[in-house]
Specification:
With about 375 residues, the chain is an alpha/beta fold. It folds into three domains: about 260 residues, Metallo-dependent phosphatases (Purple Acid Phosphatase, chain A, domain 2), CATH 3.60.21.10; about 70 residues; about 40 residues. The protein contains twelve helices and 19 strands.
Length: about 375
């Protein structure tokens, strides 16, 4: 059985006030071409279909076109909701679409029911677990102790009985040990971590949530990554589709097919004079989305407007000089609004008390902030 694993389309996303709809349409058309040539038995979309819980009409129309195109080449399509999606919107029409081979994850109700497909090696059970928080699971299991995301996922998977056959799980969580980037939502102190051990017993776990393609602890516990670069922290990523050949029990082959964007996302740096030389910009793809870092000691008046004459898709302009290094504003990741609430609180505590928090205090603050976030959610 051949599977193609996708996730984190983030349809409707804007980056630095640039609409990415044309880029997304281009990459979805490219994916359709790959699907047509590969002819998989199953296509998986592991959450974050949209960038917002209430997506724009254009984003919904784009997904509708994509889903309709896929259905011509793929007998069974599995779609779950991610943390950016509205579970109710993703689940709409699921009972009707199920008859057409399009399986949409229902809103989590405390149960997990497999959809069973067959090939020459027998049955394969597919389980769809949308993005969940501990609060989502506690309401259905009041007698269970559910204090962490690991507890929540472990209890939610208790229905996924291992009958000794082949089992595939589609879910959208952050597995401990995976590599993150700036474009992903970060929870307090890593409180959303899920231990990889809870996924033992599944032949393949199709993960969504993290934007870099990677396997975690074992090759069959895999994030396929986003089809496009969604932040400059992803500038070095190679985007791809993950293809899984599921043979007899224990026989799995995993490969990747590269994707080529309409506009690449890149970072360049240098002095204003250097970057405006013909010999420099002639060797730079003018249509790429760019973050430019100027190394001039003095600010260049109207630098962004001037540079956009040469680099029309300049998204962001920064400076790297003695002034920015002294003020600590060079790196995006070092800016206060990019730090987690726990990091900000820890800095405040240390400034006021002259000493860092101990382990117990940090654990208490993490727990309190998590409770506040869950209550708001």
């Amino acid at each position: 059985m051949k599977l193609i694993h996708l996730s984190d389309l983030h349809l409707g996303k804007r980056l630095n006030d640039f609409s990415l709809l044309d880029d997304q349409k281009h990459i979805l058309e490219q994916i359709l071409g790959i699907v047509e040539s590969q002819r998989p038995d199953v296509l998986i979309m592991a959450g974050d279909i949209y960038d917002k819980a209430a997506p724009s009409a254009e984003a919904v129309a784009l997904f509708d076109d994509f889903l309709s195109g896929l259905s011509a080449y793929v007998p069974d399509i599995f779609v779950i909701s991610g943390n950016h999606d509205s579970p109710e919107r993703i689940a709409f029409g699921s009972r009707l679409l199920d008859k057409s081979g399009v399986h949409l994850s229902p809103v989590y109700d405390g149960t997990l029911r497999p959809i069973t497909l067959c090939d020459e090696h027998g049955e394969v059970d597919f389980f769809m677990l949308p993005f969940i928080k501990p609060a989502n699971v506690r309401r259905f299991f009041p007698d269970e102790v559910i204090e962490s995301y690991t507890d929540a996922v472990r209890i939610a998977l208790s229905d996924a009985v291992d009958k000794g056959g082949r089992r595939v799980l589609i879910t959208h969580q952050f597995v401990t040990g995976a590599s993150r980037c700036d474009s992903e939502e970060v929870s307090v102190g890593g409180s959303d971590n899920v231990d990889a051990a809870v996924f033992d017993g599944f032949d393949y776990v199709a993960l969504g949530h993290l934007h870099g393609a990677q396997s975690v602890q074992r090759s069959t516990l895999r994030y396929c990554g986003t089809p496009l670069k969604y932040s400059f922290s992803e500038a070095g990523h190679e985007k791809s589709l993950t293809v899984v050949e599921l043979g007899a029990k224990g026989d799995i082959d995993i490969s990747a097919i590269p994707l080529t964007p309409l506009h690449d996302l890149r970072e360049i740096r240098g002095s204003y004079d250097t970057l405006t030389l013909r010999s420099t910009y002639e060797h730079t793809a003018a249509d790429d989305y760019l973050r430019i870092t100027l190394t001039d000691e003095d600010d260049i008046p109207d630098a962004a407007a001037k540079l956009r004459v040469i680099y029309p898709n300049l998204m962001r302009l920064d400076y790297d000089n003695r002034r920015t290094r002294a003020s600590g504003t060079l790196s995006v990741s070092e800016r206060p609004n990019e730090k987690t609430p726990l990091e900000l609180f820890s800095e405040l505590y240390e400034k006021q008390n002259g000493a860092p928090m101990d382990d117990e205090q940090e654990k208490l603050v993490t727990s309190l902030i998590s409770e506040i976030w869950e209550a708001k959610a």
